[in-house]
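EI: anyone free to look at a 183-residue chain?
SC: sure, send it
EI:
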Amino acid sequence: MARKETITKQYLLDTAFELACNEGIENVTARKLSARAGCSTQPIFRLYENMEALWADIFEKSVEYFADHCKSYVLDENTDLPFIKLGMCYIDFAVSDPNIFRMLFLSNMRFGKSFYEILNGRDGIVAAEMSKVRASGNQEAGEIFTNMWIFIHGAACMSITGDYDLDKKQTYDLLVSTLESFM
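SC: here you go
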């Protein structure tokens, strides 16, 4: 009778994702993962060809994690203005999950996905926001997105380094003001 596997691929992935959340993807090593998972490195390399294959799975799980964050994000203010909720959500994600944010949006290790694909996600959130711009009669949705995104991404990056000290209300007001200047 074959011995039952106690260390599954899903368990390793979940443990590796937790390690990436807490310490960053660069600290997901076979040694650290095996210590955290309570096993030797043998199950890791039985289930994954190499560490890059594991990192690719962590990355995909992180993309889904970000998409879930965006889907469940609740904005305190009631607005239909384009890019406001997405901007608030993105900045909030940088604050709440800085290591995953760095991996997804500040690294060139994207496993074949573009920044836009990661941001747009499975639900097409950027495309939906650009549709709101077009529905308002403005045909410069791409340019408005680019201009807004430079501000939003900058604010998110500053929040990670501690250089952004605006509260949610101030951030919301600034996003609205910035959008109005571009519309």
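EI: The chain has ten helices and no strands.
SC: 👍
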